[in-house]
Amino acid sequence: MLPGAAVAARGFLCAALLTISSSAQAAPQRVVSLNLCADELALRLADPGTVRSVTFLSQDPRYGNLASLAAAVRANRGLAEEALAYRPDLVLAGGFSDPATVFALKRFGARVVEIGGADSLEGARKQIRDVAAALDQTERGEALIAEIDRRVDEVTADPRLPRLRAVVLRPNGYSVGPGSLADEILSRAGLINVASQLGADRQVPLEVLARLDADVLILDREDNGGPSLAGAILDHPVVQALSRRMTIVSLPSRLWTCGGPEIAEAVRRLVAATAGARAREATQ
C-alpha cells in the first residue's frame, strides 16, 4: 500500500471508530449483518432503512428467503473493512463468521453480537430473541416466534398416522443426525430420521445409504437447482435407483437452515410429499 493510501485508511478507520463509540448507547440505526440467518432476522425485525448491509448470499434466491428485500440493501462478503465502511452501531455475526473479522471489528470498537445456530425449534426461538434484543425490538421478536409456533403447529403431521422412516442426503454426501433443526423438522412431519443411528451430521457413503431401511429419501436441493460438484451426488445412479423403493422429495436448504417462518413450509412440504407413502403404509 502506498504511504498516502495507508494514512487515508488509518484516518478512515479512526473516523469510523469515533462514530461507532459515540453511538454505542443509541438504538441501532446502522446495522450490518455478516451471517445469512442474521440477515433475514434483521430484515424482518429492524426498522425500515436501518439495515445497511447484508451478506451476498441473502440476495441469491437459491439461498435466501428474502432475496428481493435483501436486494434493496448493499451486499457484503463478511469482511471487517466492508462492515466498518458503514460506521455501524451494530454488527450481527454468526458461527460461520470469520473469527479474524469479528476480532478486528471488536478491536475497532464495533458492537458485535454473535448469534448461535438454530439447532432446534427452541434454538430458533433463542436466535430470534437474541437478534430482537440487539435491535431493541423485543415485541417484534416475540410476535415472530408466536407466528412460527402457530404455523408449525398447523402443519405438523397427525400423530395418529403411521410414521415413515426417512433419510436426508445433502451435497457432498452429508446427512443430518440427531439434535439438529432438520431432525426436529422431520419429526414434526411424522418422519423418523434413520440416519440418527449414524450419529451427528456426517458423510454417508452411497453403499450405506442404499442399505438403510427407509421409506423416504429427502434431497437437500431445489427441484430445478443448477448443477454443482457438491450436488453431483444427488443425481448419482444409486440415488436414481433408490426411487424405485423410496419416495424422493426435494427440499431446498433455504427452508430449513435458519430458524425463520420457512420452517413451517418445510414441514408442510414434507407432509404433503409423503402423504401417498403414508397412505400405503396404513393399508399394509
Strand order of the largest sheet: 3-2-1-4-5
Tally of distinct domains? 2
CATH class term of the largest domain: Alpha Beta
Shape: elongated
Describe, in plain words, how this protein is organized in 3D.
The chain has 284 residues and is α/β, with parallel strands linked by helices. The protein has 2 domains: 25-150, Nitrogenase molybdenum iron protein domain (Rossmann fold, 3-Layer(aba) Sandwich); 160-283, Nitrogenase molybdenum iron protein domain (Rossmann fold), CATH 3.40.50. The protein has helices at 3-22, 36-45, 67-70, 80-84, 99-107, 121-134, 138-155, 181-188, 206-211, 237-242, 262-273, 275-283; strands at 31-33, 51-55, 74-76, 90-93, 112-114, 164-169, 191-193, 216-219, 247-250. The strands form 2 sheets. Strands 3-2-1-4-5 form a 5-stranded parallel beta sheet, sandwiched between helices. A 4-stranded parallel beta sheet has the order 7-6-8-9. Helix 6 (121-134) packs antiparallel against helix 7 and helix 7 runs parallel beside helix 11. It is elongated. The protein starts with a helix and ends with a helix.
SSE arrangement:
Blueprint: H1 3-22, E1 31-33, H2 36-45, E2 51-55, H3 67-70, E3 74-76, H4 80-84, E4 90-93, H5 99-107, E5 112-114, H6 121-134, H7 138-155, E6 164-169, H8 181-188, E7 191-193, H9 206-211, E8 216-219, H10 237-242, E9 247-250, H11 262-273, H12 275-283
Parallel strand pairs: 1-2, 1-4, 2-3, 4-5, 6-7, 6-8, 8-9
Helix pairs in contact: 6-7, 7-11
